[in-house]
Design goal:
Blueprint (H helix, E strand, L loop, with lengths): L2 E6 L3 E7 L5 E8 L3 H14 L4 E6 L28 H9 L3 E5 H11 L9 E7 L3 E7 L2 E2 L32 H5 L1 H8 L12 H19 L4 E5 L8 H13 L9 E2 L3 H20 L1
Parallel strand pairs: 1-4, 4-5, 6-9, 9-10
Antiparallel strand pairs: 1-2, 2-3, 6-7, 7-8
């Protein structure tokens, strides 16, 4: 049985397929363009590589309520060409397969939870991605968290560093976490890409100042057993230890810290897990 997965990110789409145990057998990626061109590439990939079902992890905000008439529709994203685009229904109509959709970060959380080893499988974890934007997915008590919409952890308010004069890159909230600590915020503040900054650059301690606040707040409010970081900005090796140090400083020993880690493939694995669920649900309904 072959299950397809789509990690539909704001910068790039990753398409692949694998087995229900999370083994990825093939994958490819391409830049996120306009909806019509991007969906054409997705459809071509799965026409060339037939699968039994597909799971989609999409950038947000997106309607994740399965009984909603607009389930799978991209909502008021800063990527204006994608606003109100019916991603799920477009792909279902073209490919005629069982499909489920959630946010890209919820899918990453699902992938980490579903495919952890039996002895290391948490009941609760949070997956945070730091890249073009900042997002968080939550898998708590063996299920993904949804509510009014879905978690939008990147738009929480954080305490601004006293020496940070950058106005913020978020077009909606300006100096929310995403506005101060995403990849575009680094580029806007230092006029270069994050990957161009050396390990000793002060950018990383400033990043940790903001991301450590997020981590401490999530530990105090949701109390996850594990926190996993992903995304392009987190590829800087110096950053994860600095976040842990900042988090510990803010908690003052009030909580025992879970060990944070970095991951790069959880999103696609989680999308495959979601596709497997779609196939299972269709079988149960027949």
């Amino acid at each position: 049985m072959r299950i397809g997965g789509i990690e539909a990110g704001g910068t790039k789409f990753v398409c692949g397929y694998g087995t229900t145990d999370g083994t990825i057998e093939h994958m490819t990626s391409f830049a996120t363009g306009n909806p019509e061109e991007t969906c054409r590439q997705v459809i071509e990939y799965f026409t060339e590589h037939p699968v039994d079902a597909i799971g989609i992890g999409a950038f947000g905000p997106v309607d994740v309520k399965e009984h909603s008439p607009s389930y799978g529709t991209i909502l008021e994203t800063p990527k204006t060409a994608w606003r109100q685009f019916p991603l799920l229904s477009t792909l279902k109509q073209a490919l005629g397969l069982p499909m489920k959709l959630d946010t890209d970060v919820n899918c990453a959380a699902l992938g980490e939870a579903r495919f952890s080893t039996e002895t290391d499988r948490p009941n609760s974890l949070i997956y945070i991605t730091v890249g073009t934007g900042i997002g968080g997915g939550a898998f708590i008590e063996n299920r993904l968290i949804h509510g009014l919409l879905h978690p939008e952890m990147g738009h929480i308010t954080v305490q601004r560093h006293p020496h940070d004069t950058y106005g913020g890159s978020c077009p909606i909230h300006h100096d929310c976490l995403e506005g101060l600590a995403s990849g575009p915020a680094i580029e806007g503040r230092y006029h270069t890409l994050a990957q161009m900054l050396p390990e000793e650059h002060p950018a990383w301690s400033l990043q940790a100042y903001y991301l450590g606040q997020m981590t401490a707040n999530l530990l105090l409010t949701i109390s996850p057993e594990r926190i996993i970081f992903g995304g392009g900005v987190m590829k800087q090796p110096a950053l994860l230890p600095l976040i842990l140090e900042e988090t510990d400083k803010r908690l003052h020993g009030y909580l025992q810290l879970p060990k944070p880690s970095f991951d790069g493939l959880s999103g696609l694995m989680g999308a495959i897990a979601l596709g497997a669920d779609a196939l299972k649900e269709q079988g149960a309904a027949q």
